[in-house]
Amino acid sequence: MNKSERLLNLLILLLVQRRYVAKDQVRRTMEAYRGLGDDAFERMFERDKDELRALGVPVETGAIDAYFDDEVGYRVRPDEFALPGIELTADEAAVVGLATRVWQHAGLAAHTSDALAKLRAAGIEVDRSRIDVPAPVVTVEDPAFEDFWEASLDRARVRFDYQRPGQDAATRTLEPWGVVSWSGRWYVIGRDVDRGEERMFRLSRVRGPVKRSGRGNAFTVPEGTDLRALTQRLAPGPRTEQATLLVRSGSGLGLRRRAALVEEGVLGPDGGQEWDRLELAHASLAVLADEVLAHGAQVYVEEPAELRDAVVDRLAAAVGEGA
Length: 323
Prior knowledge:
Oligomer: single chain
Number of domains: 4
Number of helices: 12
CATH architecture of the largest domain: Roll
Largest sheet: 5 strands, antiparallel
Shape: elongated
Mean pLDDT: 81
Number of strands: 12
Structural class: alpha+beta
Helix content: 25-40%
CATH class of the largest domain: Mainly Beta
CATH topology of the largest domain: SH3 type barrels
Order of helices and strands: HEHHHEEHHHHEEEEEHEHEEHEH
Distance between the termini: 64 Å
C-alpha cells in the first residue's frame, strides 16, 4: 500500500468516528499497520499524523474516557475538516450557468456541467431565467484540443508532428502554457523546447496524436505571462482579400467606414441608381458574409463569387430551418 492510500485510509478512519479512537484500535483496523513491530508502528503512525496535519487536516487529540485521561485517542471533526461554503453572487452563478450552454466541446462541457451540479449541491441555485438569452456557442473541432488543454493544466511537456503549408511534418516538443482562440482558429502557446523560444502552433496543422513527454509539473509558466498579449505578438498577420459590394444609399455605414473606394449613384440589382459601389478589404470571408446578411436587402455582393455563394448558402439554410 502506498503512502497516499495509507494516509487516505487513516483520514477516513478518524473522520467517521464520533468519539476518540485509541491508537491500538487504529493499528488493528488498518491493514498497513498490522504487520509492523511496536517501534515501527509508532514511528509510522506519528509521521502519518504529522503529514495529515501538514496538509491542513485537523487531527484532534483527547482522552478516550472522560474520567480517566491516561489513554489518548484521535479523531477528525467533520465540521472542522469540511471546506467553507461556496458563496457566489447572482451574477457569478449566472456566468457558471452560461458556460454550460456556451461550451460545445465534450471535455469542457462536462467540466462546466459538473461545476453547475456542485453549486446546486452546495445550496446555490442558478436562476435559469438569467441565462435564457441568445448565447454564443464555442465549438472545438480540432481533435488535439483536449490533449493540449489538459497538458497545459498538468504542466506536462508534449511531442507532436506539425505541418506547415508546403512543408513536410516535423516533430515538435512543447511546454504548453495555454490554448487560445484567435481569428476563428485555435492555437496552443508555449515554449518550444528544441528552439528554446516562445512559439504558437495552430491546432488544425497538428498531425497524428499528441504524446506526453515525461510527467506533470515538468515546467513553470514564466511569472507575468499574458497569453492574450503573447498571442497578439506571435499570431500571423491577417490575410486580406478584396470584395466589391453594392450598398443602398444611406445604409451600410459600418461597411462604408472600411471601404477604400466608394462609387456613388451606380446601377443596382433592382435596376435603380440609388446604390453605391464599395471596395473593401477583409480578412475572413465567413465574417464578411455574416456582416452582409445582417444588412438584409440593403447590400448585394458583386465580387468575389465565393462570398456571394457563402451568403446564398446561409440564406438557403435559414429558409430550410424555418420550413
